[in-house]
Queue: 4 jobs
Job 1
Amino acid sequence: MSPTIIECKNVTRIFNPGENEVRALAGVSFKIEKGEYVSIMGKSGSGKSTLLNTLGLLDNLTSGQYILNGNDVSNYSEKKLTKTRLKSFGFIFQSFNLMNNITCLKNVELPMLYAGINGQERKKRALELMDKMQILDQANKKPMTLSGGQRQRVAIARALANSPDVIFADEPTGALDSTTTKNILNLLKELHLSGNTIVVVTHDIGVAKSADRIITIKDGLIESDVMNL
Ligand SMILES: Nc1ncnc2c1ncn2[C@@H]1O[C@H](COP(=O)(O)OP(=O)(O)O)[C@@H](O)[C@H]1O
Ligand SMILES: [Mg+2]
């Protein structure tokens, strides 16, 4: 068995506590091992993004425990949270979330810039990653001039920049056509086969099925958790 990277124990996330509160996560418990490729599936509003944001340390949980690499994140300082997000996690979003006023190359370099890596090394690694994602020829263009699929490849290269422990993707193919979706899913599969731990959130069963394990959530609770091999 591989070491556990992520463990949630009865995690809740309640928005607007009080009369009109929303229990986006109503008590979820599960573990993810190093190297797993997991999808989290559920209808719109079921709590998928909230769960992903919690796992990615982009949002705080309300109660329960989140154990990351054996450490309870509630003990993390703000500084440690930021450092973990930057160095241990890579993020891929439906709308790519690229900076449109800088080149694709600079977008891929950005996490390394924040991590304090020198300019020469940044550029070298960013170009390598763009080559791997087959978008090297787009390096000096601004994101807006690229197709959706190309932009998502830039975002994946950026997610890989600091060699993260976990790649989190929230509806990564939600803005793409079916052919491009297939290509991006193949890419994620390749990344998984080369050892990356990947967590993908989606409402699309077709996307969910590309993972080795499917966790289904409904109303903020885990409904099922099955292997898909
Ligand atoms: N910042 C927020 N404030 C209030 N309610 C929120 C917030 N974010 C999400 N919610 C609510 O929490 C529930 C789960 O949302 P979300 O995690 O975005 O679902 P999904 O990603 O599965 O569509 C929904 O009812 C949503 O309206
Ligand atoms: Mg969502």
Note: The first strand starts at residue 4 and ends at 15.
Job 2
Amino acid sequence: MSRAIWIDVGAEAEIPARAARRFVFAETPIAVFRAGDGMLFALVDRCPHKGGPLSEGILHGRAVACPLHNWIISLETGAAQGADSGCTTTLAVAVRCGRVFVDVGALDRAAARA
Ligand code: FES
């Protein structure tokens, strides 16, 4: 079982509502989104359809529309919505002292399941 590996990805104030910030960890692109209601979510920044950059999509509530073919991906589960199927990995997010931390330990767990 993998343990949590929290990394600091930047200041909370740098992620406005309905926007995302992207970073790369161990060659894996990760997007941190702030939904319109202020909640933060982190996903591997690859659409489950053909790998589109979800961080460049448009946010609707707690979902993002992929910029390539408009699949709708849940920020909460990483799953495609509607008739589409597939899932991208979700990562835990925490805010401490105004900094955003993402648990990249889940990347090891996702790789182990693949
Ligand atoms: S790559 Fe995202 S919808 Fe096709």
Note: Residues 47, 49-52, 66, 68-69, 71 surround FE2/S2 (inorganic) cluster (CB under 6 Å).
Job 3
Amino acid sequence: MLELRGIVAGYGGTTVLRGVDLIVPDGAVVALLGANGAGKTTLLRVASGLLHPTEGQMLLDGNDVTRSSPHELVRRGICHVPEGRGVFSSLTVQENLILQSARGEEKEALERAVEAFPRLGERLAQTAGTMSGGEQQMLALARTYVQHPNLVLLDEVSMGLAPKIVDEIFEFLTLLRGQGASLLLVEQYVTRALAVADYVYLLNRGEVAFAGEPSELEGEDVFTQYVGADIGH
Ligand SMILES: Nc1ncnc2c1ncn2[C@@H]1O[C@H](COP(=O)(O)OP(=O)(O)OP(=O)(O)O)[C@@H](O)[C@H]1O
Ligand SMILES: [Mg+2]
């Protein structure tokens, strides 16, 4: 379980997160929604150790990891898929997958990646940067399946992709969850995110404006007020 308590964080002199409390229980899918600039990416950066909070605490399975490095958090089972495509574009698909896998487990990693996304199997020798946006995102996501993480942080992984690919990505998230991973999901397709989420947090200007179950959001003003129009399908 990941627990953020009173997290204050920002960049230089600018405070972005203003006392955020958030919990991702084991095995749960938590959707993190909010307008552009609300602080969603910043919160994922805190959770992955890339940005340390100036105030507050972060606990992982009850252990204080507030000052832990990204490397240490990866070791503890946190996997971050950042905004944009987290792949090495000048390397081939196979080289990317091998880089992502633990030493000695390269063969298994390749097999698992292809099992999750058969399309990657047809393109192992292709340079990652020459693949379509959807294929690159599949490659970025394959890492989460290969590494057996406990908690996956996903930052707008369906951004800019065709609906059919978005469907595939959401199916993959269900698969990932079936492996026992919990997910903290930042997503622009609000309806889709709510359909898979157990809990939802709305972030407004660095503060939690709502926390609860998706069903509680129906007809809530807070929703339209802070997230804006639903652009989901
Ligand atoms: N490296 C940085 N240096 C300075 N300010 C930053 C930096 N990264 C983000 N910010 C600022 O922090 C605020 C929150 O940004 P963040 O990227 O967390 O928002 P977001 O909710 O992910 O938005 P979006 O939906 O557009 O991705 C914004 O005002 C942004 O300009
Ligand atoms: Mg963002």
Note: The radius of gyration is 17 Å.
Job 4
Amino acid sequence: MTLGFIGTGTIAAAMVEGLGGKDVLLSPRGADVAAALAARFPGVRVATSNQAVVDGCETVVLAVRPQVAEEVIRALRFRPGQKVISVIAATGIEKIKDWIGLDMPVIRTIPLPFVAEGRGVTPVFPPDPEVMALFDRMGTAIPCATIDEFDLLAVGSAIMGSYFGILETVQGWLTSQGLPEVTARAYLGGLAACLGTVAETSPAAFATLREEYSTKGGLNEQVFRVFSEMGGTGALTGGLDSVLARVTGKGK
Ligand SMILES: NC(=O)c1ccc[n+]([C@@H]2O[C@H](COP(=O)([O-])OP(=O)(O)OC[C@H]3O[C@@H](n4cnc5c(N)ncnc54)[C@H](OP(=O)(O)O)[C@@H]3O)[C@@H](O)[C@H]2O)c1
């Protein structure tokens, strides 16, 4: 089954790589990325237009930015029997169906760049079995029973910048205190890698892990206590609240 992509950018490229570049038809925009993928994988072809992608496959992945989505999708003619997978953030299924102009299956997903190395955890709504199987090939598909669950995972996915922002802040502080930048970078990168493995593989609750990794009265406990007392956890939940309002269309 050929998988067609409308929009060949970061996420499309990660998916194509995660799928091993088999039976893929790419839209011509994002020409450099498309050319590089076609050169790397014999199973990747670049179509002459967006419409040629839709005409040449059963399942179409919409992978353009939200700002151009309506214009791009309204210009396309889909046919009954096709299936659409949308990776477009904060854009509802009904809206996409309206732009398509046909009542066809539209499945929303949130693939992250880690799908490229087969390590993506990808929320899928509704949990269409074919689409679940597709994302299981690129890591683990997470079925969402409701759009509310899907939206909440979209909020969860928005912590990646903050994760690196915390490391950036700690590195900046260590450097300002006199540690060479390169030493701080190497140390924090290694620490983050070890913590990431624990977060993924331990069955323990995060609260339990926080306690396990904080000696009573010790340094780790102190940083999190001061962080919370100074509004750190409140600021984080404030950020999550504001993103939930945005992904549900009820905020900015
Ligand atoms: N990046 C992430 O981590 C991430 C995660 C989850 C979801 N998403 C969602 O995935 C979607 C794509 O994100 P991205 O990071 O892959 O963006 P991106 O790298 O900017 O890719 C967007 C692609 O769309 C192409 N494009 C623009 N106008 C087009 C048109 N008229 N017809 C066909 N293609 C067109 C662009 O081509 P040109 O380069 O020629 O302009 C580019 O190749 C977004 O909706 C985003 O919300 C992203």
Note: The mean pLDDT is 96.
